Amino acid sequence: MSVAASSTLTQQTGKAPRSVLFMCGMNAIRSPMAEVLAKAMLPAGTYIASAGVRPGERDPFVDVVLAEIGLTVGRHQPHTLDELEDDYFDLIVTLAPEAHHAALELTRSMAIDVVYWPTPDPTVATGTREQIVAAYRDVRNHLATLLKHRLLGQMPDKMA
C-alpha cells in the first residue's frame, strides 16, 4: 500500500485496524512514541506494538515529551522484530527508511499492509536542551497528527 493510499485506510475499511506494528531503526524514539500515542487514541482492544530493525537504547527525551501530555512509555525497553511475541498485524507503519525496507522484505509473502510515514530523527538536533526537546516535541506532534488523520480518519483542524 502506498503512502497516499494509507491516508484513506480508515475510510476504505470503515474502522481502524485491529492490530498495528510501528517500526523504526532502533525502537528507541519514533516507534515507541507512536505506540504510546496509538494506545491512547485507537479503540480499546486494538493490539499495538513497536519494534526496531536493530537493537537500541531507551531515550530519556521520549519520556520528557510524553510526560508533557500525560503519557508514559512505562517500562518499555527497545527490542527488535525478532523479539516480538506476535508476528501478525493488520498494518505495519514504518517511520524510517531502513524499517520500511525491512518490513517490505518481511511481508513479501504475507497479506499485511505496510505504510511509510516519513518521520524525522530528533537525535540530529543540536543546541540547548530546550532546542533538543523541541525536536522531540515536533516528532511527537507529527506522529499524533498522522494517527488522527490516517488511522482515525479525522480531518485536520486547519488547512496548511
UniProtKB/TrEMBL annotation:
This protein's UniProt keywords: Arsenical resistance
Family matches, as SMART domains: LMWPc
Pfam families (UniProt xref): LMWPc
SUPFAM superfamilies: Phosphotyrosine protein phosphatases I
GO BP: response to arsenic-containing substance
Keyword flag Nucleus: no
Annotated ranges, domain Phosphotyrosine protein phosphatase I: 18-154
Protein's UniProt keywords contain Heme: no
Protein name listed in UniProt: Protein-tyrosine-phosphatase
Source organism of this protein record: Rhizobium giardinii
Lineage of the species this protein comes from: Bacteria, Pseudomonadati, Pseudomonadota, Alphaproteobacteria, Hyphomicrobiales
